[in-house]
Amino acid sequence: MGESGTGARNSLSIRDNRNGKEYELDILDGEVVRAMDLRQIRLDPDDFGMMAYDPAYTNTASTRSRITDIDGGRGILRYRGFPIEQLADRSSFLEVAYLILKGELPTEDELAGFTHEVTFHTYTHENILKLLDGFRYDAHTMGMMISSVAALSTFYPEAKQVHDPENRWIQIVRLVAKMPTLAAFCYRHHRGLPYVYPENQLAYSANFLNMLFRIGVTEYEPNPVLERALDILFILHADHEQNCSTTAMRVIGSSQTDPYSSLAGAMAALYGPLHGGANEAVLRMLTEIGSLENIPEFMESVKRGERRLMGFGHRVYKAYDPRASIIKQTAHEVFQVTGKNPLLDIALELEKIALNEDYFVARNLYPNVDFYSGLIYQAMGFPVEMFPVLFAVPRTVGWLAQWQEMLEDREQKIARPRQVYEGSGERDYVSMDARG
Ligand code: ACO
């Protein structure tokens, strides 16, 4: 056992009161014990041994990671050590993508090289458009996105070589480059508009806006405020350590699935209203509330536990989500260009009440990243069906960085949790005529 400076041991003593036996478990990094160390605790040699029971992994570290650091109690978020506020203020999305994927901020040449690589992989095979054409006119854009990302795996069968770093990098670049193209194609299909192909002379966010919103052959000039706002939103959504979708990416990737199939799985996890689908749910909620006078009744129904205040609360943040503060500021800048989103007043009033009422204060329910992002997206002209897609585009960077880290981590194996079986013991098959 290791010794700390005070002579105290870096270990945890456990006494099994069933038989009085004592065990000493190493404490690693000052705060964790290995769940496998519990296995030695058993009553007799035939026992399986003790396990940790942790539904929804609320207190289980599944990995060591060097990518994103969150201190939920203090509202801190850092990518590779850099505070999110500084990155949102001074960086660009592609620079942050490089940082997250490679571990360091790029030099000028490195950023130019990465930007070139991403820019020249934005096109997709034409058959992707045929696949999209097979969807109904009103298909949800996220369903189309998930399917088209999964389909990409069939175009790049070499992506299965997940242990080859060079091959991995090619797939990473392809995915970062093609996600905006796919997202824009899904949007255009949803709107019944002709597809607009990538324009490689445009920057990442400008190219995305062009593919989304250009009508006809006239040149589309993205408003620089909106272009920058989108870049900031992308920076804020780029990674968030071991959340539901990232865990899905790591779990699927742990069976050595190719990155396109794994990413489609991560996107499916993101789609749910408790995760990346929350900004869509926020907008629907604000629309349903409709006006300031309906807020008190709505809040009462939340407090009675009949519904949730969407865009509030977080598994990790027990303080104001730092991304929400930046987004709130960005929202005001966007509204100066687009005009104020009429739902903003309802949102601000909900926040004011929630920050002052016992029910929310006692449960640490602060606005999360999704509370204001939907208002910006709506003001920029996106339908709600695009909101989770707009989350998935930048989060692709985080999913890929985490996937790569998992593959390079010698401690990782195929993910496979245990269970506590509570079903019937052995019983004999009953023929149909003898069943009750
Ligand atoms: N509105 C009202 N009450 C809430 C909310 C909410 N949004 N969130 C949590 N609570 C209450 C719960 O009812 C519970 O109360 P209780 O102790 O009286 O039973 C208590 O707060 C703790 O809630 P949990 O569900 O245990 O918290 P958990 O950490 O599991 O959930 C989650 C986190 C899923 C984000 C939750 O807060 C939620 O559903 N929020 C709304 C959906 C949302 O905005 N999701 C986006 C999250 S950010 C992201 O994924 C990008």
Average pLDDT figure: 95
User: Going across the major beta sheet, what is the strand order?
Assistant: 3-4-5
- One letter per element, helices H and strands E, the order comes to EEEEEHHHHHHHHHHHHHHHHH
As a percent range, the share of helical residues equals 40-55%
Total strands: the figure is 5
How would you sum up the major sheet? 3 strands, antiparallel
Structure in words:
This protein has 436 residues and is mainly alpha-helical. It has helices spanning 84-90, 93-102, 108-119, 126-133, 141-155, 165-191, 204-213, 224-236, 244-253, 259-271, 278-289, 295-303, 322-338, 344-356, 358-362, 369-379, 387-408, and strands spanning 11-16, 21-26, 68-71, 76-79, 82-83. The strands form 2 sheets. A 3-stranded antiparallel beta sheet has the order 3-4-5. Strands 1-2 form a two-stranded antiparallel ribbon. Strand 1 and strand 2 form a beta hairpin. Helix 5 packs antiparallel against helix 10. The chain is globular. The termini are far apart. The model has no long low-confidence stretch (mean pLDDT 95). The structure holds acetyl coenzyme *A (ACO). Acetyl coenzyme *A is lined by residues 274-276, 278, 302, 308-315, 363, 365, 368-370.
A few lines on this structure:
Helix content is 49%, strand content 5%.
Relevant terms:
globular, two-stranded antiparallel ribbon, mainly alpha, 436 residues, 3-stranded antiparallel β-sheet, binds acetyl coenzyme *A
